[in-house]
Amino acid sequence: MEKTEAISLKLLTEAYIDDLNRFKLPEEQHQFTALPQEISDLAEGQYGVMIMNGEEPVGFFLLHQTDRVKEYSENRKAILLTALSINQVHQRKGYARKGMTLLAEFVKDVFPECDEIVLAVNHRNIPAQKLYHNVGFADTGKRKEGPKGEQYIMALQSF
């Protein structure tokens, strides 16, 4: 296992686009998420976030403060997490867990008005469910039909 002491979260900047465009995922993961290069220009209220190991982006996800959040939570202060991926060459090194462990503090710092983080995870994506559960997300009991079947809505509250 590589050292993960230098792991941090950082808002997307142009300087890292080429690195993110080189991300790869195995198909069994890609079916459940989008690669950074598949995400076109970010709309207002969408924020790209990189999981950094030192100065190298090893992971990526989106945070949304758009009307889309209403599909997942009635809380007007909620933010939606989507499209989490860890570049295949950096998987199984603890980066996803460490990045998600840093998420609440990052959201508190960058989006101080937010008090809930919500996400949808496919019912067949057991590794992702375990990851989110292990970092404090709880199943809300809500379900949503996604492109690949039923999704569980999970939330991280009171952070």
UniProtKB/TrEMBL annotation:
The chain's coiled-coil residues are none
InterPro entries listed in its UniProt record: Acyl_CoA_acyltransferase, GNAT_dom
**Highest taxon of source:** Bacteria
Residues forming the N-acetyltransferase domain are: 7-159
Which SUPFAM superfamilies does the UniProt entry name for this protein?
Answer: Acyl-CoA N-acyltransferases (Nat)
* Gene3D superfamilies reported for this sequence: 3.40.630.30
**What PROSITE patterns does this protein's entry cite?**
GNAT
Question: Which named protein is this?
Answer: N-acetyltransferase
Q: Which taxonomic lineage does the organism of this UniProt entry have?
A: Bacteria, Bacillati, Bacillota, Bacilli, Bacillales
